[in-house]
């Protein structure tokens, strides 16, 4: 039992020393540290490490496979996956992925970017907002901004949420059904107007009856 404890202690000492050696490794800017504590030259853009360097040879690098890329000096063993531009979510491919650069996506018409990567790329798009009835479009949506809506002012209405139209003006002799922000004023004839329109017909009818019976 004592012998086992001694062996464990010795193993831990060597393990700690090895870990300290690895952590103490300080490689140059264009080098990377291997698992065994060696410094190897980094691979160029478009490639990743296939085999670490040895005392007799430099780092062996391999090109990125189709659908992957590497855009920096590195000591990695795998390339990054190319971004997919999802047309179902308002994105399209503006620039295809290469071995050295990722895909650049932009937004389709009717969408705006909510996840701007830089001045050229977008990672997340959303449909332009639709203004409601009773509102108008104050500022149309663009590829970088959403639609801005504004409520119609008193005396105006909008059925489609595009623009506000002034209420119809009724004459003083008309009955008026009040308008709202979503519907126009309705003008109608007064009861007296109905009477005066009907009166001539009534008189003619009476006179014709008198002639017939007379």
UniProtKB/TrEMBL annotation:
Residue ranges constituting the TNFR-Cys domain according to the UniProt record: 26-61, 63-105
SMART domains registered for this protein in UniProt: TNFR
Superkingdom of origin: Eukaryota
Molecular function terms, GO-annotated: transmembrane signaling receptor activity
A Pfam entry, by short name: TNFR_c6
Disulfide bond annotation, renumbered to this chain: 40-53, 43-61, 64-79
Listed GO CC annotations: external side of plasma membrane
Ranges: TNFR-Cys repeats: 26-61, 63-105
Keywords tagged on the record: Disulfide bond, Signal
Signal peptide from the UniProt entry: 1-18
Record bears the keyword Disulfide bond: yes
InterPro entries per the UniProt record, alphabetical: Fas_rcpt, TNFR/NGFR_Cys_rich_reg
Biological process, per Gene Ontology: apoptotic process; defense response to Gram-negative bacterium; defense response to Gram-positive bacterium; immune response; negative regulation of alpha-beta T cell proliferation; positive regulation of cytokine production involved in immune response; positive regulation of T cell migration; signal transduction
PANTHER family attached to this UniProt entry: TUMOR NECROSIS FACTOR RECEPTOR SUPERFAMILY MEMBER 14 (PTHR46838:SF1)
Designated name of the protein: Tumor necrosis factor receptor superfamily member 5-like
């Amino acid at each position: 039992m004592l012998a086992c404890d001694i062996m464990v202690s010795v193993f831990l000492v060597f393990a700690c020393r090895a870990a300290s050696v690895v952590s103490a490794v300080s490689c140059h800017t264009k080098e990377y540290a291997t698992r065994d504590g060696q410094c190897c030259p980094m691979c160029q853009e478009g490639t990743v490490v296939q085999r670490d360097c040895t005392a007799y040879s430099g780092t062996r690098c391999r090109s990125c496979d189709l659908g992957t890329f590497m855009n920096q000096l590195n000591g990695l063993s795998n390339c990054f996956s190319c971004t997919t531009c999802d047309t179902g979510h308002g994105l399209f491919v503006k620039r295809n992925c290469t071995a050295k650069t990722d895909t650049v996506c932009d937004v389709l018409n009717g969408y705006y970017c909510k996840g701007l990567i830089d001045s050229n790329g977008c990672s997340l798009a959303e449909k332009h907002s639709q203004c409601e009835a009773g509102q108008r479009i104050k500022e149309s949506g663009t590829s970088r901004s959403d639609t801005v809506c504004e409520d119609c002012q008193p005396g105006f209405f909008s059925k489609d949420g595009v623009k506000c139209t002034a209420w119809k003006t009724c004459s003083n002799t008309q009955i008026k059904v009040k308008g709202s922000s979503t519907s126009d004023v309705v003008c109608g004839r007064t009861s007296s107007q109905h009477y005066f329109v009907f009166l001539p017909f009534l008189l003619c009818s009476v006179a014709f009856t008198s002639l017939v019976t007379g």
